[in-house]
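Let's study a protein:

===
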Amino acid sequence: MSLRRSGLQRDVLALYRRALRMVSTKPPAAQPKFRLFVRYSFKTQASAISPRDISTIEHLLRRGTRQIEMYEDPNVRDCWVSSDMVQWGEQNGGRRSDAAGKKTLSTS
């Protein structure tokens, strides 16, 4: 059974995938910071609003699209990550890459 998604859900997932693809274009040393920034931004925004608040979601989609367009610029090579983001990342590790580049589940 496949999960049917609304157009807005597909747009949000497409923006998230675009952001993660953007991370892979950045220098290897900066990729973990960009990945943390993307994950933190999406997670905190998603938990801050109601899924039924369509106008706010559309606004965040437009703002996120403009922000990703800015970060996709090849001249952007690093991003700032706050201590709150780092702390959140340590608590919500999720999937991490090991030394061989394989995805593994975090045990922390």
Strands lie at 95-97, 103-105. The chain is about 55% helix and 5% strand.
